[in-house]
Amino acid sequence: MAKREFKAESKKLLDMVINSIYSKREVFLRELISNASDAIDKIYYRALTDDHLTFNQSDYYIKIDPNKDTRTLKVIDTGIGMTKEELESNLGTIARSGSFDFKNENELKDGYDIIGQFGVGFYAAFMVADTVTVMTKSLDSDEAYKWESQGSDGYTIETIDKKEPGTEIILEIKENTEDENYDEYLEEYRLKQIVKKYSDFIRYPIKMDVTESKLKEGTEDEYEDVIEEQTINSMVPIWKKNKSELTDEDYENFYNEKHYGYDKPLKHIHINVDGTVRYNAILYIPENAPYNYYTKEYEKGLELYSNGVLIMEKCADLLPDYFSFVKGMVDSEDLSLNISREMLQHDRQLKIIAKNINKKIKTQLLSILRDDREKYEKFYASFGQQLKFGVYSDYGMNKELLQDLLLFYSSKEKKLVTLEEYVSRMPEDQKYIYYATGDSNERIEKLPQTEMVAEKGYEILYFTDEIDEFAIKMLMNYKEKEFKSVSSGDLGIEEDENKESEEKEEENKDLFASMKEILADKVKDVRVSKRLRSHPVCLTAEGEISIEMEKVINAMPDDQQIKADKVLEINVNHDVFQSLQNAYENDKEKLSLYTNLLYNQALLIEGLPVSDPVEFTNDICKVMVP
Ligand SMILES: Nc1ncnc2c1ncn2[C@@H]1O[C@H](COP(=O)(O)OP(=O)(O)OP(=O)(O)O)[C@@H](O)[C@H]1O
C-alpha cells in the first residue's frame, strides 16, 4: 500500500507537536478524550436539526482500554466518526481542525461546546506512541477506514470492516527509555489519575475496565481480582450545577477531593457570570494557612478550565497577592488558548475575570466581617498579616480596597476592632487615630508612652505584628483621620501641659544638656516628657523612623541597618527627677550613673537590648550600696 506523505510544512509541525508544544506527555490523553467528546457532540448537534436522528445521551460514551500484553492503549468513542475525505483532510493535514470548521459552519453558541480548534491535539499521541492507528466509520458513510502512521514519514489509509459509527484510536506505546517511563500509560491507576486531572468534567462517561480485589463469594477472607467496567470521570462539574441544588457538604467534598486544603473551608463562593466574558468559578476561603503560606515556597493560583478541561493547575494571574490564600477554580468558554492549551494567547478575558473575582472576594470577606465576626476573626488570625502586606506593598496601590478588612486590638474594647469602628467612636476633640507598638498586647498595655493618651480617655490600637506600623504608614490616614503613634513627638493633646513643660525645660536646660552629653550619640535629645504620668522615663522617636521600625528592619537578614532618632523623655513630676537635680548640683559621677541607668531602663521597656548588661547590673549595685 502506497504511503501518503504529510504535507511538507506538516512534517515540521508534527515534529514540533511531538517535541515542543506540550510540556507534559500525559496531556496526549486529554487531547484524544477531548476529540472523542467533540465527535459525540457533533452527533448531538446534528440531531438538533435532523429529524431522522435522535440523540439518546446514554448511548454515547468514551472508553479507554489499556493492554500490557500487546502494549497498546485504545481510546474508543461512539461519536460521529470520519469519512475517507475527512480522514485525509483532518489527520493528513496537521493544523487543520475539522472541529473548528464544524463550529463555524454550525454557528454554535452555548450548551455543548466543541473543544478542538487548532488541529494539532491528535498528534500529541506520537509523544507516547510509535504507531498510531485510527479505525473509524462515519455516521454518513457505509464504509469504514483504517488510518495508520508512525509519525513524520506519512500515513496509510485502507478500507476495513466496522459496523457501528465511531472511532477507535490505537496507540502502540513506546518502549521505556533511560529517561522516560512509558509503561505508566498502560497502568490503570495512572490512566485514571490523568483522566481525573484533565478530563473529569467531560460530559460523556469515560469508561475503563478496572481491576478490583473483592471478597470471593462464599468465603470470609479470600479475595479475587474482579474486572469491572467503571465510569472514571465525574461528568457534571459541580460549578455548572444550580446553586440551589448544592449543599455546604457538596462544596466541602469538592474542596477535599481537589486537595485545595486539608481543613474545612471557612466559606465558599460560587460565581456564575454570563456577561462579556462568561465564566463559572468556585472559590474557597480556607480556615487555616497552609504550613508554607508565609514562605517563598507557597504558590498562589486558581485552577483554570476551558469548557471543563483543565488548562492550568495554578493560574497565578487570577489572584492578587493579598488574596493569595484563596483556593478554587475558574471555568470559562471564552478563553483564547494558545496551541498547547497550557497558556492564554492574550489575557484580556483573564484580566476581566480576575478583576471580577477580586471584587467578589472582597465583598464576601466584608460580609463575613459584618455577619459572623467570630468566623472573620478566625480567618484574620490565619491571613490578616497577608492583608496588611497587601496594604503596604505596591506602594500602597491597594490600600483603599483593603483598609476596611483590617482589624487591630483595641485598648478600650479589649478585642479586635475595625478602623471604621474606631473612628465612629472617636470623641469630637480627638484629632488622631492613636496606636502603640510592641511584642504583645500585655506588653503594650504597660508601656509608659500610652499613659497620657489613655488618661485622656482615647482608644489606642495595639500593633503587635511587625508589618503593622509599615502598613499604617502607607495608609497614612483613615476617613481623613491621621494615624499617630503614642510615642511620637506631638500627640496633639498636650495643650495644658505645654506651658508648664516649657518652663521646666528652660529651668533645667543645663541638666538636660549634661545628660545628653553623658549619653552622647545614643540619643538625639533629653527632654521634659509631656506624656508620662507614673513612669520616670521613656524613649520616643523623632522623625519618620520609629523605634519599632528600627527593630524590625535591623532584625532582617540583610545588612541594612537603620537608626531611629531617639529622645529620652523625663517625667519631671516623678521623685526620680529630684534625685537627678541633686546629683547635677552635687555629684557629677552620680548624675552619669543615674542617666545611664534611666536610659537602659527605657531601652528595656521598649524591648530593646541594653548594650552592656554587665555594666547595667553593676550600676544597679552601685545604687544599692551607695
Ligand atoms: N475521535 C475522533 N472522531 C472524529 N473526528 C476526529 C476524532 N479525532 C480527531 N478528529 C478530527 O480530526 C481533527 C483534528 O484533530 P486534532 O486533535 O488534531 O485537532 P482539534 O481537536 O481540531 O484541535 P486542537 O488542536 O485544538 O485539539 C478534528 O478537528 C476532528 O475533525
Please sum up the structure shown.
This protein has 626 residues and is an alpha+beta fold.
What would your notes on this structure say?
With 626 residues, the chain is α+β, with helices and mostly antiparallel strands. The chain has four domains: 10-230, Histidine kinase-like ATPase, C-terminal domain (Heat Shock Protein 90, 2-Layer Sandwich); 238-376, Ribosomal Protein S5, domain 2; 406-493, 3-Layer(aba) Sandwich (Rossmann fold); 495-626, Four Helix Bundle (Hemerythrin (Met), subunit A). It is 36% helix and 21% strand. The strands form four sheets. Strands 5-4-3-6-2-1-7-8 form an eight-stranded mixed β-sheet, with helices on one face. Strands 15-14-17-16-19-18 form a six-stranded mixed β-sheet. Strand 4 (144-149) and strand 5 (155-160) form a beta hairpin. The model has no long low-confidence stretch (mean pLDDT 89). It binds adenosine-5'-triphosphate (ATP). Residues 31, 35-36, 39, 77, 79-82, 90-91, 97-100, 116-123, 167 line the site of adenosine-5'-triphosphate (ATP).
The amount of helix comes to 25-40%
User: How large is the radius of gyration?
Assistant: 36 Å
| Number of domain modules | 4
**End-to-end CA span:** 115 Å
Oligomer: single chain
Structural class, from secondary structure content? alpha+beta
Number of strands: 22
CATH superfamily of the largest domain: Histidine kinase-like ATPase, C-terminal domain
Mean pLDDT: 89
